[in-house]
Amino acid sequence: MSEAARVSGPDLGHGHPYPGVSLAALAEGSKPSASASLKLLPATARLVFRGREAAIGPAGEAFGVALPREACRFNTNGTRSVLWLGPDEWILLAPGEGPAPLFAAIETATAGLPHALVDVSSRSVAFDLSGPKAGFVLNQGNPLDLSLDAFPVGMCTRTVFAKSEIVLRRTAPDSFVVDVWRSFAPYVWQLLEEARRGA
Amino acid sequence: MLIINCPYCGERPEIEFRYGGEAHIARPADPSALSDAEWTDFLYNRTNPKGKHAERWRHIHGCGRYFNAVRDTVSDFFVTTYKTGEARPDIEESAR
Ligand SMILES: [Zn+2]
């Protein structure tokens, strides 16, 4: 594959050109729609935190957002969010920030307490899907009940979209964020585009 | 689609889960003390009931956790689910 065919752009940075379909090109070609618009979100610091009781509070304090203790919920403070992924697993998101200072602050606050903190910033990319038909579009590849009663604003979960795993969260009644592993991103993006055509 | 009740996340579609084999099979504490027949039994022999079966499932595309379920192998009906480490609920076994 020639260098020209490789992807570049801020969301695909960190020195790892993505050898395949250009996500940036796909995003540029995406037409806005009144029913559901798809948008590539800028680079985000992502840290996965796993730990026992003693480390959970200090980690949240150091990050500035308390780790939610309710299953499948996320907390937000300013631009930063923490998503519950499992009973001892959270993902900490800081859009537009670098992971290093956050990582250092949390490591300092949790020193000596059993936990694991991993920088997964480059692992995935995020899309915003917004519009009155956003839930309908997602349901073309996702089997969850996305009505507001069953999947309210503030809910997040790992789930699937077609054959890919995604992390889904609802940021507003008509807005979802899809976080997907980098190598699956063009696949999910193109299926969402396909679904939007029917919306 | 089958709905499975994850003890952590609640009711979720079957496609998010993976099967994990029969539940409540503890690895022998001292394997070298076992006879070959006993070791074979631990490794390979399962109850394979026709009826209620306690088995492990993993919510792999969800919270990621393993848990246990009692499922009827005839009807595929999930009688109950419970967290790993909890005792098997007192549910009568169907005739084998
Ligand atoms: Zn779960």
Architecture blueprint of SSEs:
The complex is a heterodimer of chains A (199) and B (96).
Chain A: H1 23-29, E1 37-40, E2 44-51, H2 53-63, E3 74-77, E4 80-86, E5 89-95, H3 99-109, E6 115-119, E7 124-130, H4 134-138, E8 156-161, E9 164-172, E10 175-181, H5 185-197
Antiparallel strand pairs in A: 1-7, 2-5, 2-6, 3-4, 4-5, 7-10, 8-9, 9-10
Chain B: E1 3-6, E2 10-13, E3 18-22, H1 36-44, E4 52-58, E5 66-72, E6 78-83
Antiparallel strand pairs in B: 1-2, 3-4, 4-5, 5-6
The structure holds zinc ion.
The site of zinc ion (ZN) has 7 residues of chain B, from loops.
Protein name (chain A): Sarcosine oxidase subunit gamma
Pfam families (chain B): SoxD (PF04267)
Organism (chain B): Ancylobacter crimeensis
What does this structure look like?
The complex is a heterodimer of chains A (199) and B (96). By secondary structure, chain A is of the alpha+beta class. Chain A is 24% helix and 32% strand. Chain A folds into 2 domains: 3-42 and 123-197, Probable tRNA modification gtpase trme, domain 1 (Gyrase A, domain 2, 2-Layer Sandwich), CATH 3.30.1360.120; 44-119, Heterotetrameric sarcosine oxidase (Alpha-Beta Plaits), CATH 3.30.70. In chain A, the strands form 2 sheets. A 5-stranded antiparallel sheet of chain A has the order 1-7-10-9-8. Mean pLDDT of chain A is 91; it is low at 1-18. Chain A is globular. In chain A, helix 2 (53-63) crosses helix 3. Chain A starts with 22 loop residues before the first helix and ends with a helix. In chain A, a hairpin with a 2-residue loop joins strand 4 (80-86) and strand 5 (89-95). Chain B has 1 helix and 6 strands; from the N terminus they run βββαβββ. In chain B, the strands form 2 sheets. A 4-stranded antiparallel sheet of chain B has the order 3-4-5-6, with no helix packed on it. A two-stranded antiparallel sheet of chain B has the order 1-2. By secondary structure, chain B is mainly beta. The model of chain B has no long low-confidence stretch (mean pLDDT 93). Chain B has one domain: Folate-binding superfamily (Folate-binding fold), CATH 3.30.2270.10. Classes of the chains: A alpha+beta (199), B mainly beta (96). The A-B interface holds A 71-72, 85-87, 89, 143-144, 157-160, 165 and B 1, 8-10, 12-13, 15-16, 61-65. The site of zinc ion (ZN) has 7 residues of chain B, from loops. Zinc ion binds at residues 6, 8-9, 59, 62-63, 65 of chain B.
